[in-house]
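User: Can you recover a sequence for this backbone? Please restate the input before giving your answer.

Assistant: Of course. Working from this structure:
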């Protein structure tokens, strides 16, 4: 097993600050590469969040924790971490099946987590959060300081209707064209290297 320095969540905790947009773009690129591969194999991760996105010392992104993964797509079980769960996962027991697009939703929530240090509804208990995710409009970035490009990417991930949400493969293409100004992208490796140097 390859050694990783820590997770994207660790970077936020160590620096007590959100990531830069260029860093989030680099993390999204790595996540989408992994998700595209999984989804082509009819697998669903079902627990994408900053804590499950690992970084090597060179800034390479690795998806971790496949304990909630489905080896078949579509699926219909209620699995995942509440604050990052897609609406159709919450409603699956009543309304049917879902596919890999639930990971795209979770990636959108992870973008907000990386940008604001916490996912939406994190101030609520898990059951209340699940209700709001299922019933409310999709969350958005709260700060006006993020670029329109980033906002559009997050909005695309967080389309409430999965039929309107792009696949991970399509989103990889969209991300490349939308965030082309970030290329060559700043990798998060400099931040990742600070995980091991932090006290405790």
């Amino acid at each position: 097993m390859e050694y990783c320095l820590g997770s994207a969540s660790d970077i936020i905790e160590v620096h007590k600050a959100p990531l830069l947009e260029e860093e989030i773009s680099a993390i999204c690129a790595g996540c989408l590469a992994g998700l595209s591969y999984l989804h082509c194999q009819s697998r669903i991760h079902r627990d994408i969040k900053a804590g499950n996105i690992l970084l090597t010392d060179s800034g390479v992104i690795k998806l971790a924790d496949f304990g909630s993964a489905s080896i078949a797509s579509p699926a219909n079980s209620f699995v995942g971490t509440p604050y990052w769960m897609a609406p159709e996962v919450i409603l699956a027991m009543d309304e049917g099946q879902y596919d890999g697009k639930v990971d795209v939703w979770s990636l959108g929530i992870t973008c907000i987590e990386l940008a604001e240090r916490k996912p939406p509804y994190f101030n609520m208990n898990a059951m209340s959060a699940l209700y709001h995710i299922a019933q409310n409009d999709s969350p958005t970035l709260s700060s006006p300081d993020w670029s329109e490009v980033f906002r559009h990417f997050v909005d695309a991930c967080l389309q409430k209707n999965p039929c309107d949400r792009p696949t991970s493969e399509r989103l990889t293409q969209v991300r490349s064209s939308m965030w082309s100004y970030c290329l060559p992208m700043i990798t998060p490796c400099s931040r990742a290297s600070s995980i091991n140097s932090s006290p405790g």
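That completes the design. The beta strands are 6-7, 53-55, 61-63.
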